[in-house]
Specification:
alpha/beta; Quinone Oxidoreductase, Chain A, domain 1; 6-stranded parallel sheet; 9 helices; 15 strands; NADP; NADPH binding
C-alpha cells in the first residue's frame, strides 16, 4: 500500500513514498480508500520530530482524510455502507496517518462528506474547525459577547471567526492589509492590523479588554494583554500561562475530540449550510508532499494545501 511518510525526522526532504502493509478493519472500525488528505501545521511538527512518538519509524503524518469506505469491521455495519463517501479526523501515531492510500479508522471518527462537496474540499475542514469548536466551547462566551481572534486569516483562526458568528458573538479579528477583505468575508465585525501591538489595537476598540480571545497567531502572553481581567484565552500549541489578572488559559487539543461523532456531524452540517468555508489553496500529487510542506512553512498560505491520492 502506498503512503507518504518518513523514516527520520527533518525538513520536508525527509518525506518519501513508502510501501506499507495494507490494513484491515477490525471491530468498530472502517477502512477508507483515501482520495485526499489535507496538509496541516501539525503535520510539519510530526515530520520535524517535535511531537513525541511511541512507535518506531516509519511515521505517516496527516489528520484530515476524505475518501470512500472500502471495508467495514464488525459493529460498524449499522452506520456505513461500502462505497460511501466520508471524511475522517485522525490522531496520527507511528505509521497511522492520513497520508496513506488506505487507512483504518474508528467508526466514531468518521462522518459522511458534506453534500455536494468533492473529496479535495472535504479534506480541508474537520481538524481546524473542530479545534475552533473546542476553543469556543472552552471559553464559554454568551450570545452577544465579544471575541477577539488572532491569526484570523489562517485555517484555525478563520474557522473560529465563522463558528463564533454562527454562535452569535461579536468578532474582532486581526489581518494584514492583503487579508482584510478575506477576514471580513469570513464574518469579522472589526478588523485590526496584525503583528506587534495587536493587543493595544484591540484595547482601542474595547478599552476594558475582550472577555475571550482565540490565539491562532501563537502570541501567548502578548495576546493575553487584550483580554479583560478574569477573561479567557484559548491557545493551540499547549501554552498554559500564567496570564495574570485572573485570566483563564485553555490549551485546546483536537486529539481529545477525534471520537466526537456528534460534534463532527455538526461541523459537516455547518459546512453544508455555508457557515464554514472549505478553502483550498493548492492541490499537490501525493508524491509532492515535500513541496506542500515547504509552501506551508514559508507562510502566507490562505486555505488548505491538499494531497491528491486519487
Amino acid at each position: 500500500m502506498r503512503a507518504i511518510g518518513l523514516t527520520r525526522f527533518g525538513g520536508p526532504e525527509v518525506l518519501e513514498p513508502l510501501e506499507l502493509p495494507e490494513p484491515r478493519a477490525g471491530a468498530g472500525q472502517v477502512r477508507i480508500r483515501v482520495h485526499a488528505a489535507a496538509v496541516n501545521p501539525t503535520d510539519t511538527m510530526t515530520r520535524g520530530g517535535t511531537r513525541p512518538q511511541a512507535d518506531p519509524p516509519p511515521y505517516v503524518p496527516g489528520m484530515d482524510a476524505a475518501g470512500v469506505i472500502d471495508q467495514i469491521g464488525p459493529g460498524a455495519e449499522s452506520r456505513f455502507e461500502l462505497g460511501e463517501a466520508v471524511v475522517a479526523l485522525i490522531a496520527p501515531q507511528g505509521a497511522y496517518g492520513a497520508y496513506s492510500e488506505r487507512i483504518v479508522v474508528p467508526a466514531e471518527s468518521v462522518v459522511p462528506v458534506p453534500a455536494g462537496v468533492d473529496f479535495v474540499r472535504a479534506a480541508t475542514f474537520l481538524m481546524n474547525s473542530m479545534t475552533a469548536r473546542l476553543a469556543l466551547d472552552a471559553m464559554g462566551l454568551s450570545t452577544g459577547d465579544t471575541l477577539a481572534v488572532t491569526g484570523a486569516a489562517g485555517a484555525f483562526g478563520g474557522s473560529v471567526v465563522q463558528l463564533a458568528k454562527a454562535d452569535g458573538l461579536r468578532v474582532i479579528a486581526d489581518a494584514k492589509d492583503g487579508d482584510r477583505e478575506l477576514v471580513r468575508e469570513l464574518g469579522a465585525d472589526e478588523v485590526v492590523e496584525r503583528g506587534d501591538g495587536v493587543a493595544a489595537r484591540i484595547r482601542e476598540l474595547i478599552p476594558g479588554g475582550v472577555p475571550g480571545l482565540a490565539d491562532g497567531a501563537l502570541l501567548n502572553e502578548r495576546a493575553a494583554e487584550a483580554v479583560a481581567d478574569g477573561g479567557t484565552l484559548a491557545t493551540v500549541r499547549g501554552w498554559q500561562g500564567p496570564a495574570g489578572r485572573g485570566i483563564k488559559v485553555f490549551p485546546v487539543s483536537v486529539r481529545t475530540a477525534v471520537g466526537d461523532t456528534a460534534g463532527l456531524a455538526r461541523l459537516v452540517k455547518q459546512a453544508e449550510e455555508g457557515a464554514l468555508s472549505l478553502r483550498v489553496a493548492k492541490v499537490f500529487p501525493a508524491e509532492q508532499a515535500a513541496e506542500a510542506h515547504r509552501l506551508l512553512e514559508a507562510g502566507g498560505v490562505r486555505g488548505r494545501l491538499v494531497l491528491d491520492f486519487a
